[in-house]
Amino acid sequence: MPAVGFAQQILNRTMDVDIRNKSLATALQLIGKKGNFTFSYISNSIPQDSLVTIIEKGKTVRQILDKLLDGNYQYKEYNNYLILQVKPPGQFFYVSGFVTDRETGQRISNATVYERHQLISTFTNNEGYYRLRLRDKYPAAAISVSKDLYADTSLLLPISNDQTVNVTISPYTRMLPTVEITGHSQVEKTWFGKLLLSSKLRQQSDNLRHFFADKPYQVSLIPGLGTHGRMGGQVANKFSLNVLGGYTAGVDGVELAGAFNIVKNDVHNVQVAGLLNMTGGKMIGVQLAGLHNNVLDSMHGVQLAGISNNIIGSQKGVQISGAVQRVEKNMTGVQAAGLISSTYGKVDGLQLSGACNFAMDSLYGVQVAGILNSAENVHGLQATAGGNLSANMHGLQVAGIFNIAHNVEGTQVSTFFNRARYVKGVQIGFVNVADSTTGYMIGFINIVKKGYHKLSVSSTDLVPFNVSWKSGSAKLYSILSGGMSLEDPGRSFVLGYGIGREMLMHPHYSVTAELSAQTYHQSGTSDEFQVYRASGAFLYKPRKGLAIFAGPVISAAVLDKTTRPELPVSPLPGKNYLGFGNGDTRLWLGWQIGVTIF
Known about the structure:
The protein contains 5 helices and 49 strands. It folds into 4 domains: 2-86, 3-Layer(bab) Sandwich (Phage tail protein beta-alpha-beta fold); 92-169, Immunoglobulin-like, CATH 2.60.40.4130; 185-406; 452-597, Beta Barrel (Porin), CATH 2.40.160. It is mainly β.
């Protein structure tokens, strides 16, 4: 060990030389004598008789020999001997040195030192030192130094042999314009990027954000261990094969991975991964992943994933996932998910999901979901077994439970509940509620806050006392009615539902047309009847909130069921009025008269 330590100092010894027009053999003897060591070499390997001139001050033995021998020899040290050997072709040489700040003189750590053509790189250590191994088969090499917040610096290497190159770099002080941060510079900062990329690769991406290269192909085992080494993240390829995972600058062809693909910029054509695809730029083509696809810009084409898809920009094409997918801007085409499809911008096409669809802006097309559809403005169809939500509805809402919208210009259909602030169209449901309407409400209960609310008390040919509640709009309102007769023999009760329309003829006069179905039962008898009535009435309004009405009624009674056979048979309703009957059915002409308040 002591001998080796002594020999290793030969190449680093400094000296001044002034040799003019001497043979190479003589020059070597003078250098050896001045450095207190002895050269050893095969005589025919060196042109000993060649005349040389070299004048240097304060240079190391290595630097002097590199210049004297044109970098064609490699050096080995043994004790106090320096052995010269012809360098075999296709070998490597090392460039080493320190990187310092031009202004402060401080040595800079984590700077990237690389060769652009060979795509070989390394980092400076904590002391600012680097050592880069390059191939000498290239006719010329140039090292570049890049560091975040510093200006890029490049130096041409005049000879392809081991050498020391110290580099100073300057802080990047030019004022930068305000720019929008896009996905192209953010793939390393995502959760997956931090998980799957080493800190060195992420640091290199920051240092080399302005350098990219193109190559026909690359093969890697994991990011940083492949054809292009740590420079893989700066290289775009036509074909990329990643055994487990890969990290590239871009793809213009096909990329395949057993587990994951991470691409900083754009992907064109095909990207397939067993688990994950992460694209920092645009995805144009087909993207397939067993679990998750994540595109930090836009997607044009087809995106398929076993669990989830995520697009930060816009989508034009088809997006299908087993569970969840999201588009942060606009979606044109198809979204289909097992659970949730969501678009934060405009949807122009079809959204399908097993659970929920969300269009945070406008929907021009169709939403179909198992539980819930939600869109800001709907121009088309919302259909679900659960509920639909929208601010402005222009089209059709169909729901198994409820529809809710601010403004409806179209149709709401549900089995239970429809709600809107303003309706210019049709509501069909068990309960319909609106603040105001110029359309139609068809349901068992219709409530219009600024609409039609009437309470009528009347006497009819069926029973002498009736109460009816009418709500909805004048165009079409619903009627809930009940009545009774307490006269003996046989007290009678009726309960019914109907619809009606009021047509204004004069501020004090109007006419109504109503259809209703009522259940009629006379106590102490065995039967119930369904009575269907069509009525018309003339209304006189002596003052606001009060109307007197009267008019004819055409009724048809049909035996519904016999509840208690042991009781006497009920007489047919309307038997005392002009009409005709056949067995269990009777048709007759009756009357109504009453007052309406509100």
